[in-house]
UniProtKB/TrEMBL annotation:
This is Cytochrome P450. Belongs to the cytochrome P450 family. The keyword S-adenosyl-L-methionine does not apply. Coiled coil: none annotated. It comes from the Eukaryota. The lineage of its organism: Eukaryota, Fungi, Dikarya, Ascomycota, Pezizomycotina. Keywords: Heme, Iron, Membrane, Metal-binding, Monooxygenase, Oxidoreductase, Transmembrane, Transmembrane helix. GO terms for molecular function: heme binding; iron ion binding; monooxygenase activity; oxidoreductase activity, acting on paired donors, with incorporation or reduction of molecular oxygen. The chain crosses the membrane at residues 12-30. InterPro entries: Cyt_P450 (IPR001128), Cyt_P450_CS (IPR017972), Cyt_P450_E_grp-I (IPR002401), Cyt_P450_sf (IPR036396), Cytochrome_P450_monoxygenase (IPR050121). Gene3D superfamilies: Cytochrome P450. Heme binds at C436.
Length: 498
């Protein structure tokens, strides 16, 4: 005769397990049938699960996947059971306008991986408003003007190093040198001292640590549960990340202390930085020193790859358009010695090249996620309840063929007549109260970079398909930021240099 415990197992497998599975299926069917986004166009899978979207995100294909959904379903598309992507100027205005009630989501704090919020990650409108007032004074045109001399010096050093590389190898990796340039500039602008990567030609420990941390951001967001479990283990990758974070804090602390001594000794004549006003706020006790360090690290993350990626794609696109490149070389050749940004910003072709690069290759291609506020919102006749997430990806807005003729073509001449529709569909720097703080700073740096580059390489550049480098290396991958897949960009002079 069977013992009672032996009888229990078939009972479990025959009745209980199927009952649990049925209950789970019924619950899933119920959530699908009552999902408030069920009437919105989108693939059926996006109603059942976010796994398809997650897969696209983890493989760097998020923006291209969503763009394909827009082509199929139209401007308003459901991308997961609780998230929409919108490709529509009116919707973009509603979400990203000044005073918008659509707040940043938890994505930002998980992505940055710190419990201490900064101006980029804050989800609290009041805190953000106050802190942004303090920080934005450092980014005004007047403040950036004071930093222009060291921006120009770093740019000139970068271009000299590129010329040396061309003389040595016959080609140059512009992505590498623009990365070093942007990092040195932002180091000096944040800590009062360059990271000296242009001088040494190598990444320093702080930057390689920062890149390791930043590259994990999207995994923290998409695999949060798993990451939290692994973090509890006494060994493994998360422990290494904690060691990196401790090393970076110590570095930031040293750099801040160094600047502090100079600031305290002579506050009126100390070198201006993007944090000068914050040092004053720490001095008078209205800001925690930790907050200042977090902002400094935030600027380095926000201001390095973004600027380098934009400069790289400008050179890459021009390397395939000899006539436009020649015209730009002529435009910058006539600049007076010691030119500054006041002159650079009057150069029409330089401006159009920059605009067109920001259109076709925005450094942040993906949607900037925001939570729908209390009371919900209407988009294209659909009601979207509070708490759902919406985003508008620059990649798709910048390729809308009803606004941009021949949108996949790099064509600076389209900016000769900039229409209202073009302005309304242009979001390379986000918008409203969360618009990029460093927009003006980045443009000054990029104008100097391109002017110096084409004054030095005045014979023009062409792609250099060497060392296995191909067009594929230049396809963007999107992990919030969108650098070229190969993390390299080789170009070479069209003729020998004079
Ligand atoms: C071409 C270069 C750049 C591009 C394309 C770019 C793009 C962006 C975008 C799209 C956002 C909005 C993010 C969001 O709403 O989720 C943003 C925000 C921000 N950017 Fe930039 N950025 C660039 C350069 C810089 C530089 C050089 C700095 C600092 C020196 C900087 C600092 C910031 C900060 C602090 C924010 C957060 C602002 C806030 O939430 O109030 N950026 N940037």
């Amino acid at each position: 005769m069977d013992s009672p415990s032996v009888q229990k197992t078939p009972y479990l497998t025959i009745y209980l397990l199927p009952a649990i599975i049925l209950a789970l299926l019924a619950y899933k069917a119920y959530t699908i049938a009552t999902n408030p986004l069920r009437h919105i166009p989108g693939p059926w899978i996006s109603l059942c699960t976010n796994l398809r979207l997650k897969y696209a995100i983890l493989t760097g294909e998020r923006v291209r996947y969503i763009h394909s959904l827009h082509s199929r379903y139209g401007p308003i598309v459901r991308i997961s059971p609780s998230e929409l992507d919108l490709c529509d100027a009116a919707a973009a205005k509603t979400v990203y306008k000044m005073g918008s009630r659509f707040m940043k989501t938890r994505f930002y704090s998980v992505f940055t991986g710190s419990k201490v919020v900064n101006v980029f990650s804050s989800q609290d409108a009041q805190w953000h408003g106050q802190h942004r007032r303090l920080t934005s004074a450092n980014f005004s045109e007047q403040s950036v003007k004071k930093m222009e001399p060291f921006i120009a010096q770093n740019v000139q050093l970068a271009v000299r190093r590129m010329r040396e590389e061309v003389q040595r190898l016959g080609y140059v990796d512009v992505f590498k040198w623009f990365m070093f340039m942007a990092t040195d500039v932002i180091g000096e602008a944040s800590f009062g001292e360059s990271f000296r990567m242009l001088e040494t030609g190598k990444e320093n420990q702080y930057i390689s640590d920062l890149e390791t941390l930043a590259s994990k951001g999207i995994y923290r967001v998409e695999l949060e549960g798993l990451v939290n479990i692994v973090a509890k283990l006494p060994f493994g990758p998360v422990k290494e990340i904690l060691r990196i974070a401790a090393r970076m804090n110590a570095y930031a602390e040293d750099s801040v202390q160094r600047y502090w001594r100079l600031y305290s000794a002579d506050p009126e004549n100390v070198k201006p930085t993007l944090l000068t006003k914050e040092y004053a706020a720490v001095e008078d006790g209205t800001l925690e020193p930790l907050q200042l360090r977090r902002d400094a690290s935030g600027y380095i993350i926000a201001g390095t790859d973004t600027t380098a990626v934009t400069g790289t794609y400008a050179v890459w696109e021009l390397s395939k358009l000899p006539e436009v490149q020649e015209a730009l070389c002529r435009e910058v050749a006539d600049l007076p010695e010691g030119f500054d940004d006041e002159i650079l910003r009057t150069l029409p072709l330089l401006d159009r090249v920059l605009q067109e690069t920001l259109r076709l290759h925005p450094a942040v291609e993906q949607g900037l996620p925001r939570a729908v506020p209390d009371g919900g919102a209407e988009f294209g006749g659909y009601h979207v309840p509070a708490g759902q997430v919406v985003g508008i990806q620059a990649y798709s807005m910048h390729r809308d063929s009803t606004v941009w003729r021949d949108p996949e073509t790099f064509d600076p001449s389209r900016w000769e007549e900039s229409t209202k529709a073009m302005q309304d569909n242009f979001y390379p720097f986000g918008g409203g109260s969360r618009v990029c703080l460093g927009m003006h700073f980045a443009k000054v740096e990029l104008r100097h970079a391109l002017a110096n580059f084409y004054r030095t390489f005045d014979v023009g550049m062409k792609p250099a398909f060497v060392q296995g480098f191909t067009e594929k290396d230049m396809e963007a991958v999107s992990y919030f930021l969108s650098p070229p897949r190969g993390k390299r960009c080789y170009v070479m002079p069209r003729k020998s240099l004079s």
